[in-house]
Amino acid sequence: MNGLDLKQAVLSGSNNICIKKSYINDLNIFPVPDGDTGTNMSMTTTSAVKALKEIDSDEIGVVAKAVASAMLRGARGNSGVILSLLFRGFSEGLKDKSTANGKDLVDALGLGVDAAYKAVMKPTEGTILTVARVGYEGGLEACKKSEDVLEVWSAVCNSAEEALAKTPEYLPVLKKAGVVDAGGMGLYSIFEGMLSYFIDGKVLEYEETHASEELENFSSTVAEFDEVINFTYCTEFIVGRDEKVKTDPNELRLYLETIGDCVVVVNDDEIIKVHVHTDNPGNALQKGLNYGQLLTVKVENMKEQHRQRVEDNEAKKEEKVKLEPAEPTEEIGFVAVAAGEGITNLFKDLGCDNVVSGGQSMNPSTDDIYEAVMATPAKNVFVLPNNKNIIMAAEQTVPMIEDRNVIIVPTRTIPQGMTAILNYDSELSPESNKDMMTDAAKQVATGQVTFAARNSEFGHQKIKEGEIIALENGKLTITEKTPAKAAVRLAKNMIKHDTSFVTVIYGADTSEKDAQEVYEAINDKFGNKVDVSLVNGGQPIYYFILSVE
Per CATH, the architecture of 228-305 is what? Predict the structure, then answer.
């Protein structure tokens, strides 16, 4: 195979994971809204596809290098970083080669597997790492009989598939949920897409417009929304039932299904509630009048809403200002990752030169962090990832930057990041500061109140999608009916006899009234011994974030 073959194979692999992205996301078993493995990995591969458009060489070494570089810069989340490391192996193993056979390909994959295992502090079997390693081992065994690309890569895929099926045996939590590992499925999907090209020379198809929108907007919501707008008007109405009309409301449902979709008809003795997507809302309303009087009517043009949403997204893209590199003239600088205007301003007030927009459910890429570091005019730049799924992406920037010293402080939450920067001591060396800031961050307890993104089961407790949940240092401890109640209960669990400070940070979806009630409830109970403060963080996903020190 030559560079053009690798280029097409990577495109096919990328398209395959984009196709299966939603399915892979659904394999995530923890109910907290997160970066979603399928989304992170598909966006990582899409960055490579975008870069390959600029490459016209047919040398496999040149193409492999372009793929690896683009994936590294576009890597999102831990799964995306591991994926980029696997493809870095292709770059190293195929360096200076014009063509490659199956043995070359497998040897290169082996280099990537080694790099991925070394990058993870405590490698866990039953994950993407296992699928990659076993796939490599299967390919290596096949090379004893043949060095043909198709035969060898078929063996890689077969072994990877077998390893994926066994991931629940490594991780009981997967077995209990009845799923395989999401990262492993993502990697297998890419390998499978590449194999599809090797078999018949055809690239698996996927709408390119979807991928580009996904890369720019952190999600494919807008692109996918277009697919389900089969009818223009979302029509909802309530009919006050006429006692004289004895016709079964099910006939109304059957009629509506002939003029639209997404039909919901709910009725009792007094009313009939209707929802339908149709091009003829007047006909739907007229049919409803056969059952009684219209009590409420709402008709919305979904295509117009979608058009407006696209325009808003385009406007946001234009508003995003690219950070320009700055000469490292100062001694010390800081970069933090955060979401929410209030939290962003808070980090800037604490001395951060640049704040990268991102966090849970919207992991920034390595390139986003790289850009922020380069725009920080300092010889030593401390980076605060503030999320466990962003630490690896931040660490990948270190070897990319030569003109300044990049220090990653592995903060896993917003409260840890705030405490870390507050503990910086200008009298100490950068290395000593990293140790002290890391130790200080570990002393902070973090509470988070959010919603369950999916149905799941932990221990003997069943969690329903949409249910309010609270986490103490990442561990799910509370379910409640309202975010405010969950926040108060969480604070009571977390505040100990030696607690001195509690900061309540409320999010974009929390009213000031609810936030004030939580603050007063905590202050009334603990205010005599604990300093309680309230901050409007404006963060998405989390109704409340509690910092307990």
Answer: 2-Layer Sandwich (3.30)
